[in-house]
């Protein structure tokens, strides 16, 4: 499966989250051959769980693994520091990102530490987040830990 | 509650994890007044869940919150990159660490980004990890994403 094919799985997850009333960010973990290991999406709203971002959901769904050296994390949006830390700690060597226009997390930091980063500038991913941030800004800022109107 | 009192809660969690056959790392999230918001421990072995570290378990247990500006993360061990990323992303302003001798994660990076870091050099925390790493090195290296004997 190529990068666009892998991203399509993450986008399916993002759309599933949106349909549930949640934050439309999805991710999937693949092995180096493009075999799907796990997939998931942000579940802050659905489960009241601030710890489940798209990337952590996909990572968890892939189950307990001894090594991630042959894996690829694919996500609809630039990974936040939490999810970037996950990638670095577990040695995931490659991250494919739908877009980094509406939000820029830790992907440059990951690249500095040897992680291969591809940003696909996917219009569908940009559209999902642009529409969502416009519709639910308070929910988006909550998800990235930014207090608005409080400082 | 003072730092030692808060650490005692995290140590209880670490010991609970050890008693379950798991990795003895515990954490707890408090508010600035020392009120407990959530507590938890590493559950890699117990749940087959690589995503549940002590800090992420405590964070999840605290429930969905709009802000973490008044919180303190207390952990028995220096937070790995994954858990350090969690602290940075959600703006947790202070981390109290039992020890950073047996493992050093991202606490210096957090300090560079304005997070208040206290390392208590607690002998009980050091003992828990020293004994565990000696007894189950393969499990420990799996938990921090280090391949041993494979490179």
From TrEMBL, chains A, B:
Its cofactor is Zn(2+). Residues 1-117 form the CMP/dCMP-type deaminase domain. CDD domains: nucleoside_deaminase. InterPro entries: CMP_dCMP_dom (IPR002125), Cytidine_deaminase-like (IPR016193). The keyword Ligase does not apply. GO terms for cellular component: cytoplasm. Pathway: Pyrimidine metabolism. Gene3D superfamilies: Cytidine Deaminase, domain 2. Keywords: Cytoplasm, Hydrolase, Metal-binding, Zinc. PANTHER family: CYTOSINE DEAMINASE (PTHR11079:SF190), CYTOSINE DEAMINASE FAMILY MEMBER (PTHR11079). This is Nucleoside deaminase. It comes from Umezawaea endophytica.
